[in-house]
Each structure stands twice: as C-alpha cells, then as structure tokens.
Write a structure and sequence with these properties.
The chain is an alpha+beta fold. The protein has helices at residues 32-38, 58-91, 96-122, 149-170, 178-208, 220-241, 254-275; strands spanning 5-11, 14-21, 27-31, 40-44, 50-54. α5 (178-208) packs antiparallel against α6 (220-241) and α6 runs antiparallel to α7.
C-alpha cells in the first residue's frame, strides 16, 4: 500500500495543520494546538463524522494535563492579583507601594504561566509520518525552535512577562523624575504589552492556519486565544493612559490606566479558567 497523500497548511514557513488522505478513505488531521494541548488528532472516516481521537501515550497525556493545570492556574491567580492591584490603585488608600506589591506578586504568576506555556510546546507529542500516533519526545526544560509558530508565540509571551517584571520592579523606586518614570516604568510596560499583542496574533495565526483573522466560535482554543488577546489590548490601552506628562507630572488618564488594567487582568483570569478545560 502506498503512502497516504499529505497536505500542509500554515503561513509562510510555519506549518500549523497537516492532512493525510489514506487509500481506505480515512482522513487524519494534525493541528498544532490540538496536538500540544489535548494530545489528539482529528479523524474522519468514509462518512462525514469527525472525531477527536487521543493519539498520544499515557505518559504524554499525563504530562500535558499537569502542565496545563499549572499554566491555567498561574494565569488565573496572576489575573486575579493584577485585578486586585488595579482595584487598590483605584479605590484604595492611594499608597503606590501597596498596589505595586500586589502587581509584583501577580507578575510572578504571569512569569510562571508564560514559562509553563513554553514547556507545553517543548514537551508536546509530535506528529509522525503518514498520520500515525503522536510521538512522545524526551522531557526538556528549554529548546530553541523558532521555525515552530507555537514555540514563537509562547516564547514571545514568556519574554513579555519578563519585561513586565522589569516594569513591576521599577515601580518600587521612589523619588524618580518624570523622565525616569517614563523610561524605567512606562517604557517596559509598553514593550511588554506589545509582546503580549504579538504573541496573541501569532496564536491566532496558529489556530486559524492563515494570517487573516477567523472566528471559530465552537472551538474552546479559539476562545482562549480571543479572550487573552482582548486582555492584551486592554493592557495596552492602560499602558498608554499611564504615560506621565512632562509638563504636569500627572498621568494621561489615571482612571483609564486603572480600569484598563483591571478589565485586562479579568480577561486573563477568564482565559486561564477556559484553558483549564483545554486538556486531554
């Protein structure tokens, strides 16, 4: 029997979906996000019914569940703490150090969530020739795979969380001039937001298999990506509103800065809750 016909889809050099048409009439589809989050392939028989079939071994599925639990939990806690920090800034006593401490704790959980998301990519089961069962790779704590779109998306996300960490650490500094505040606190904030937006766009490309936006309302993975990207947009709005005017020494709009952070954080919290169900 000959090799099954194979079709690849994606954007540029990135492959996000492979389809194998077998001689017996069965069609097997590997999708990047479905395989790494759920350890599964899509299978369509001679009829029209499509099933999502677990294809990885028990070790890989257990690994995916554990990583997903840590990542989703970290984003839920991080989002909750960021929302709390924004609420303290908006409605609290006005003590900047108090809200900065809450933000910093939330940032640590975002760091954990970003790194664990990268581990999900590095340790996800890989597709095999001809649409066979997914292959479990050896465990890795680090890897460099820039030609994989999922790696690039999660790597940019992780770097974004680290840049946010610089912003959050600098928030504890006292007696800064306006120029120092904008350089040490505001600039890393904006850079982190840009990296989050880039990561979200790459995640959309991965799940849509094309550069143009798509709507997959029945896909849990699509909702996770969409909610998180909305959170990134709100974080960017907040960051722009937090610029300190050199002439007055005041923020562009304190209310927008706080409410943007609060609502964006709630989006990441919701995204973490949704991600908890995107598991094998």
């Amino acid at each position: 029997m000959g090799q099954p016909e194979q079709r690849a889809e994606g954007v540029g050099p990135f492959t996000t979906r492979l389809t194998w048409h077998r001689a017996e009439g069965e069609t097997v589809v590997w999708e990047s996000r479905l395989a790494r989050r759920r350890g599964a392939l899509s299978v369509r028989g001679s009829g029209d019914a499509v099933t999502v079939s677990p294809s990885a071994d028990a070790e890989a599925l257990g690994r995916l569940r554990r990583l997903n639990t840590v990542a989703s939990g970290a984003f839920v806690i991080g989002g909750a703490l960021f929302a709390l920090g924004a609420a303290v800034a908006q409605f609290g006593s006005g003590d900047a150090v108090e809200s900065a401490a809450v933000y910093f704790a939330g940032g640590l959980f975002f760091n954990i969530g970003g790194y664990t998301s990268l581990l999900q990519v590095l340790n996800a089961p890989r597709h095999s020739q001809g649409g066979g069962p997914l292959v479990t790779a050896d465990w890795r704590w680090w890897g460099y795979e820039p030609m994989r779109l999922d790696w690039l998306s999660t790597f940019v996300l992780f770097v974004g969380t680290l840049v946010f960490g610089v912003n959050l650490l600098d928030s504890f500094l006292q007696g800064l001039t306006v120029q120092q505040t904008n350089r040490l606190i505001w600039t890393p904030d904006v850079v982190g937001c840009v990296l989050f937006l880039i990561s979200g766009q790459l995640a959309f490309v991965e799940i849509c298999h094309r550069s143009r936006p798509c709507v997959h309302s029945r896909s849990l993975g699509w909702w996770v990506v969409a909610v998180n990207q909305l959170g990134s947009v709100l974080f960017m709005v907040s960051a722009l509103a937090a610029f300190t005017r050199p002439a007055t020494g005041s923020l562009v709009n304190t209310d927008i800065a706080n409410w943007g952070t609060l609502s964006g954080a709630l989006c990441f919290l919701l995204g973490g809750v949704l991600q908890a169900f995107e598991r094998p």
